[in-house]
Amino acid sequence: MDILNDDEEGCYRNRTVKFFYEESGKNISDHWRKRDYVIVTMGMTVCFIVIFSNLLVIGAIFKNKRFHFPIYYLLGNLALADLFSGVSYLHLMFHTGPWTIKLSKYQWFVRQGLIDTSLTASVLNLLAVAVERHQTIFNMTLHSKMSTRRVFFIIVFIWLVSIIMGLVPTMGWHCLCDLPNCSTMAPLYSRSYLVFWALLNLLTFSIMVAVYTRIFVYVRRKSRQMSQHTTQIRHKETVLNLMKTVSMILGCFVVCWTPGLVVLLLDGLGCDKCQVLRVEKYFLVLAECNSFVNPIIYCFRDKDMRSTFKEILTCLCRRSQDHRGLSEVHFSTMEHEVLSESNGADDSNHKQNNHSH
């Protein structure tokens, strides 16, 4: 429980979340405003779409053996990160607005840590995909020769680093004992941590863009040197299509997340004139929208993925119809209903007669 007494001089470990919000200038409303309803409605709608669409991607990768290659395992892990992001934002929607005032500091750190973990997992997955594509393209192969065990270790490493990054503020990089350094957007976070986190992600974006630019330049030069043999042309087209798909995924990620990271960076640098609180929640929804963009890209860019989506959805529809058929009795006409009742009566009379005999 948070209480209103300082446990040591200069520290505010036992103060409430409301105290830090008031000190940082981010007021918590004790009643629901129209803006709060709009944000929560938009956020929850996006979250449900994100969860469903990424479950579809993960199911497609498990179902179709054509996707049992390192690049698709990494893209599947990216879908898992997006799924985790949807769950994290759904949790946030139930702990935002006037609900924030009821949170303990532990609950607040959990809320923020889930979001930090999901973003870090997405960024590291995209970096792993970029490295994998760099390796395969420069060897002019469609799929990497990495073993399944190695891919598994990469995925585990990604999640370990992501969880640690989400726990860093809780483990000490906060402003509970440095009140003047508290962030405005995240009042229990230290400004220096926001600067570190935003710069690290923006730097990672820049590295990935540089890697993909180098790949495209190489592929363009190499494709001119390739012969006009049909097999080579088809192979080149397949490689380019997969490259375009992962590049679109990266591009959408950068577009959706960069505004939010820039705002975090400005807040961390103490920009008082930037009015970050006006756009904070809208940029948060924009960032979450990225998590359902990826399945849309898969659907339009990959025929096998699109057909697998259709198979899964068709299977789900058939199961729901079969369930309805077993759980409901339909009478097309009144005559059928009367006939059914009379048949039931005849059956019962027949049983009684047998019993008497």
TrEMBL record:
Locations listed in the record: Cell membrane; Cell surface; Endosome
Q: Where are the transmembrane segments?
A: 37-62, 74-94, 114-131, 151-174, 194-217, 238-262
Chief localisation class: membrane
Record keywords: Cell membrane, Disulfide bond, Endosome, G-protein coupled receptor, Glycoprotein, Membrane, Receptor, Transducer, Transmembrane, Transmembrane helix
Keyword check for Cell wall biogenesis/degradation: no
What GO CC annotations are associated with the protein? cell surface; endosome; plasma membrane
Q: Give the membrane topology.
A: Multi-pass membrane protein
Q: Which GO terms describe its molecular function?
A: lysophosphatidic acid receptor activity
Q: What protein name does the entry list?
A: (Atlantic silverside) hypothetical protein
Q: Name the species this protein comes from.
A: Menidia menidia (Atlantic silverside)
